[in-house]
Input
Amino acid sequence: MAKKISAMDIYKLLPKINCKKCGESSCMAFATKLQERKASLDQCPVLKSPKFEKNRKKLEELLSPPVKEVWFGYKDRKAILGGEEVMYRYELTFFNPTAIGVDISDKLSEEEIRRRAKFIEDFFFERTGEKLKLDFIALRNASDDPERFVRALEIIQESTKVPVALCSLNVESIERALDVVKSKPLIYAVTEQNFPEMMKMLISKKKDKKDFAVVLSSSNIKTLKGMVKASLSHGIEDLVLDPHTTPENIMDTLDRFVMIRRSAIERGDKLLGYPILGLPINTYFYVLSGNNPIGQFVKELDKAAAIMEASAACAMLNRYADGIIIHGTEIWELMPILTLRQAIYTDPRKPQAVEPGLYPIGNPDENSPVIMTTNFSLTFYTVTGDFEKDGVTCWLLVMDTEGKAVDVAVAGGQYCGENAKKLIEETKIGEKVNHRIIILPGLAAPVRGDIEEKTGWTCVVGTRDSSQVGEFLRKNWNRILEEWRAKQGSGN
Amino acid sequence: MGLDEVFELVKKTNRVKIDSIEITANEIVINIPTISPISIPQTPPIRESIRRIISPEEPRIEIPEVDWEPPVEKYKGYIREVQFGRPKSEGGRGKVIKIGGQRALYRFEEVQPNPPVVTFDIFDMPMPGLPKPVREYFQDVMEDPVEWAKKCVREFNADMVTIHHISTDPKIKDTSPREAARLMEDLLQAVDVPFVIGGSGDPKKDPLVLEACAQVTEGERCLLASANLDLDYKRVADAAMRYDHNVLSWTIMDPNMARDLNRRLISHGLDGDRIVMDPTTCSLGYGIEFSINAMTRLRLAGLKGDELVNMPMSSGTTNAIGAREAWMAKPEWGDRRYRLPLWEITTGLTMLLCGVDLFMMLHPLSATVIKEFGRLLVSKPGKIEVSSDNYQWIKA
Output
């Protein structure tokens, strides 16, 4: 990790008047939030006054991450790249999930362009209560014709509101597209070959107040760094780096990603402190053209291309890619990419918790068992995963244990009678079943008495592991239910 | 305006801005008081460039030279090298596999000496519960673990084979350790690759099964899976020491726990070079981020010189197939024939990039992709020729 800035360093530059307008109780509290990147300078109205301009500049400098945050798209629908602070997620967290772009060729028919754009805008895969989405359209100038490029952009803008990357090496195509684009685009790409011409055009557009982000592209990191220096000297500062994706050997590409990121974060190289763009789409077309390393198992080239493209994408997600462009859109290809991204960008500082409450598993009815677990994510997903695999049908009560696992929560006192009572009342589980039995995890045996006492429900200690629950219920549930009913009957 | 007049102007104002200038002479010397003398020979290209420099509308744009060195780290420590199998020259069956031996974290720092290795899971009894996209490859050999092992090696290029003696589970068939050992002998005859020997997961029975199997495979340098804190790990370590094997040290995603178990095994007498760590692989979507953290921390600690965690690592990548996103037949999730292996590939690749050396896998396609990435991982940077154009995709 790069040098650590203390909250005190930040506090010294704040107004120190504790006006609370930022929403925090004091300037010191605000400083702490800023340091953890849980607040932004914009929240402080006082800093906006001319008197504090100098301090604000200093604070911006102090708080800017070693990898610059670059955005493109619309004000209310952005693709945000970079902004990273660390090499390894356990050191803090990774901030902006890799932006995933899908290509659209300007050679497609208008109808096809519209349909693909709409697909990219609407697509989502829902997982653990979160809608995982695609982030941008990479419009590529396959025709090399500026006319068609602009027309395709117009169609996309008419039918969708998705951030767009304008991809062409043709200076005229980019120039014309910049005249009609309605959002802040990402421009792909300034290369070693087109550098003077493309830069010249971009500089003049910049002077006309056109806003855009630019991809600089070279397989040589030193050259890339030089390109950054030149861009900055001309006032073009929203940069993204493309150190080339080589499908013959993706490891060379991954090495370059790591070298760029390590230079920025561990060596403090400001000129390489920019987001990285990966091109799994190169792998796709490479395999599609006949280089199929999995031909023994998958003969269809488009399927093999999608599998290898997804593999390249997943490798890049593990190696600092802040943005990627892909071609394949089959759901089975997108699912693992999106799920991996969700995992890598989960904030390890937050307790890994799911929403407490009642979760029906399978299609439970009034005779189904009630099982009570914790809201520790991993516990929850293991349990629900096991239940689904084993065909368990039940009502799953998920207790708020502050994201602690069963054994930890039993020891820590969160998995207890009081919380169980609250959960039963809030979920109204009593109205959904015609019995009063809760099955507890084996590890919760010590608190059985407490829970029975506070809730009035009968507790049965189940298995130690959720993978055994299916068998346990098949063997025992009917008997447990009958015994309970018999007891109720005799009691009345 | 003549030159003399310009110089007069410069003398008075100390600066002058020229918007366009044309100079014709054989050689001129311009003496501007505040600037050192420059001599300009009259050649057209220079005249051209003078024009460009002084025109504010046309900034000169080129890529400047900058300094940059690849950020290579020095590591105090190293990763131990563990060997499976015994060469024919020493009376073994032939195939020898080595894992580990890294001296750096990344390939551009120093290429690791041994490629990642895939060991195919097989079972000592039919597994009708395996998802169809896996079963279709092994349906014909499921009744016979010996044929199963042969198929993995011959058709799917397995580096190693993991035999899970799950029928020894008292709740399943309660097969005796002796029977498991007999199967082990048959397997040794059938294929020449090294073995990972697994029990059923029953903490009481496993040490007995592993011990019996270790005995009949003496000297073959198998990997006994596993020693963990829930069972009599000393017995497993003893079997490895007595019969010349390696031990899989299995813990649950906690680097400190991994360190603790390794310390116990070593202080019991097991050579640290006979340990492979398994810090648990959670499937993609089911806590893989915990595995990422654990593996990364262990590898970094090892390279920094912690000799209690500098062992090569193993991943139960097959766990990925237990995720419903992998095995479940659900039309809106697309074709399971691709979805299932890709889920396992994604899990495996993530572990590969966290430093894992040994992959226990089930689907032959997933294994092939992991091995392909492994082949590239141990290639020297720049050695594999790249002829593709990075911008081809724009026009494809």
